[in-house]
Here is the input.
Amino acid sequence: MDRAGFLDRLIGILSESGLRYCVIGGQGVNAYVQPVVSVNLEIAVATEDLAAAEALLRQHFRVERFPHSLNASEAGSDLRVQLQTDPRYAVFVQRAAPRSVLGLTLPVASLGDVLQRKVWATLDAGRRASRRQKDLADISRLLEA
Here is the structure.
């Protein structure tokens, strides 16, 4: 539920700013296979745009910094946006193409890059077991399709 229009505002702000980004993670998987419900939107930003993206998000939304991400949120919305700060994901932006995500046409990482993200996530020993199981299920969904 996004009663605040958070998704539309976020995408509008990113698009108007000219920052280069793409959708990765579960919503990236949903762009290639039959979607499953998720309240998370994970994005990667080009390395040279990362500092500007953080500053821009902080101007408009509540932002929390974690070791490998920035999490943006807004009151009145259940949507959680996670901007990856791990530099491995920045190259995904170069290979992204427009696809349908959450009813919008957004730049989405290539199929190979979405799969790579999920493989890296399953190999992350610090990740919760339940999250790693979801990542494995997402890999299976991609391979079956």
